[in-house]
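quick one: glutathione bound model?
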Amino acid sequence: MAAATVNEHLPTPLDATSEPPPLFDGTTRLYICLSCPFAQRTWITRNYKGLYDKIKVVPINLQSRPAWYKERVYPENKVPSLEHNGKVIGESLDLIKYIDSNFEGPSLLPNDHAKKQFAEDLIAYTDTFNKTVYTSFKGDTVKEAGPAFDHLENALSKFEDGPFFLGHEFSLADVAYIPFVERFQIVFSVLWNYDITAGRPKLAKWIEVVNKIDAYKPTKTDPKELVEHYKARFLAQ
Ligand SMILES: N[C@@H](CCC(=O)N[C@@H](CS)C(=O)NCC(=O)O)C(=O)O
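yep, here:
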């Protein structure tokens, strides 16, 4: 069971003119960008575990990035990153595991060895999944991306007992994919007139159920901004 959610009002993203927060004062801070799918993974994890007071979300404006972010927080200059116990760590897939195992709240990885291994395999496949889909934008998109969505449909068929990758329990495997599937569903529909769930009933059900999770709802991206961003980034000649 997810922890209770709160109706959170996040601060305006910090930009190049913003002073840094009082860094390394003992506050745990999760630096994100509101439209970043990698950061969204960590944001969902933090919400699902009910860590609203324990982990402060600090949105950053990546278009007008504050210099102190690279210089004093995270030299890779990307989001997400987590300031915790006097150090800063990054990489969304490492971070979701880190948050899950170092903080209180419902566990997002099962104890069952086979299920845990399946979650690890799925998490390891996310880069291939994303690469296959992003590469397809430059080619015969619907045809080339098909196997990536079929992979998810097959994975979702593994356990009979529920709509999620590991069956009835929501896990880090779901967290790792949903930000990207959310974006792909929108852009395939708007730009290629293609429904990624057509002929993929498990994927359709999974998306429907994940959309009801309170920890996920406030993290969803703005579809209009997304389509404009994808047009400019992937379809411009
Ligand atoms: N592998 C990283 C990727 C993070 C990433 O690329 N974040 C983007 C925003 S969506 C970013 O910070 N881009 C800024 C840049 O590359 O300068 C992760 O999983 O956390």
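Residues 33, 36, 38, 62, 77-80, 90-93 surround glutathione (CB under 6 Å).
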